[in-house]
Design a protein that fits this description.
Blueprint: H1 12-27, E1 30-31, H2 33-40, H3 43-52, H4 67-79, H5 87-94, H6 98-112, H7 123-128, H8 131-138, E2 143-147, E3 155-159, H9 162-184, H10 189-199, H11 204-218, H12 242-248, E4 252-253, H13 269-276, H14 297-321, H15 331-344, H16 346-349
Antiparallel strand pairs: 1-4, 2-3
Length: 362
């Protein structure tokens, strides 16, 4: 099957939003503005948005020889910004989800790079990493215990299970990226990103995340070490738990979407009210975990498209209903708030997310 043509240069964000809107219409998904207003005026939002609406975890406690070296590391971090579908098995083994697993990997790659063993963060380094090395650098066990085929009562460890699948995907992305960089003459990913910044060709979720990181981390440096992107019009992330939050809060309405009839319950008033209350209020601690359902690619793309459209609605509605006491609501700040509230609130974290494990997009 032939891949779809890329949008014209300079039209990526416009085309992304137009295609997301078309997908929503075809899927039967609607966005409930009244429930966006309900969230904006809720105790949960008004009491936490100022604190949680700033991008965090960008300034890493590492020393870099140059801004380009730091950009290279952040670019690899953005490249591997997927795997939320594996959060449950990763948390069961390590206590943390995919985002922290990748941070552990990046830190280990940085710390263990040296003149004798080579630079794991270079094009050659990421091209040559093995699955076993990646598992060791992250600090996870990729074996599952199975009964011996001929000896009763004896179990043996075999490669397999969801964490092995996750590590395999991470390794594949690193290897393939390293190969492409070497074939194209780039010593590391940072050099390619600087060239892309000069061309201003922005596309897709990982690059949107990386552009936000670059602006936040390097935007205040004068003179700038490389072109700093304008991130004013960037959409919110449509990955991870964001679509699930918007469904459970009643903002994304899937009740008339034939391909989403099961697995994604409507955000009823009874279920939503505890999510809108401040921590400690009755009902929050007693929330039961949502059982994540594995989605098909079509379902995942429909929910992600709806997330883009829904988050774009927030700024205009916020202007009409908020009194100006909170920071201006933008898609970027809203995305940071989603990530922050999930870390602070177990009831939000229990809502799960899109589960589509055999992908490297989110």
């Amino acid at each position: 099957m032939q891949a779809p043509a890329l949008p014209p240069t300079g039209k990526y964000l416009q085309c992304m939003r137009e295609s997301a809107d078309n997908i929503c219409q075809r899927s039967g998904i609607s966005i409930e503005d009244k429930n966006i207003e309900r969230l904006l005026l809720s105790e949960t939002f008004t009491s936490s948005f100022s604190k949680l609406s700033t991008l965090t975890g960008v300034a890493l406690p590492l020393k870099f020889a140059s801004p380009l070296d730091e950009l290279n590391l952040l670019s690899i971090l953005a490249l591997l910004n997927f795997g939320s579908s594996f959060d449950a098995p990763l948390r069961a083994q390590t206590g943390h989800g995919a985002s922290n697993a990748i941070r552990a990997l990046i830190f280990s790659m940085y710390i263990t790079s040296n003149s004798s063993d080579g630079d794991f963060l270079s094009a050659k380094g990421i091209q040559s990493l093995s699955t076993a090395e990646v598992a060791e650098l992250i600090g996870v066990n990729v074996h599952v215990e199975k009964p011996h085929s001929t000896i009763p009562g004896v179990t043996i460890g075999e490669l397999g299970g969801p964490i092995y699948q996750y590590v395999h995907l991470v390794t594949h992305v690193l290897n393939e990226t390293g190969r492409i960089l070497l074939d194209s003459g780039y010593p590391n990913l940072g050099f390619l990103v600087v060239e892309a910044l000069k061309e201003a060709s922005y596309i897709f979720s990982k690059v949107i995340y990386l552009l936000d990181v670059i602006s936040h981390r390097f935007g205040s440096i004068s003179p700038p070490p490389f072109p700093i992107p304008d991130v004013t019009n960037l959409p919110a992330s449509a990955d991870g738990i964001n679509p699930a939050l918007l469904v459970h809060l009643g903002i994304i309405d899937t009740s008339h979407a034939p391909n989403l009839k099961s697995g994604w319950p409507a955000g009823s008033d009874t279920a939503v009210q505890p999510l809108l209350a401040q921590p400690g209020d009755k009902g929050i601690e007693s929330s039961s975990p949502f059982q994540e359902s594995t989605t098909t690619p079509q379902q995942a793309f429909s929910l992600r498209a709806a997330t883009v459209i829904a988050c774009d609605r927030f700024p205009d509605i916020a202007k009409n209903v908020l009194d100006g006491s909170l920071p201006t609501v933008t898609a970027r700040r809203l995305n940071a708030w989603f990530q922050g509230i999930v870390k602070e609130r177990p009831d939000y974290r229990s809502l799960g997310g899109i589960v589509l494990q055999d992908n490297v997009f989110f």
